[in-house]
Amino acid sequence: MHLWRLWIALGLFAAFAAGAAVVYKWTDGDGVVHFSDQPVPGAEKIVTSSGSTNGIGGTSSSGAGTTPKSATAAPKVGEATIESPSKEQVFFGDDVIPVRLNLAPELQPTQAIAWKLNGATLDQPRDAISFALQTLPRGTYSISATVTDSASGGSLSTESVTFYVRQPSELAPQHKKS
Question: Measuring CA to CA, how many Å separate 106 from each of 2, 34, 102, 114?
Answer without folding.
Answer: 62, 19, 9, 15
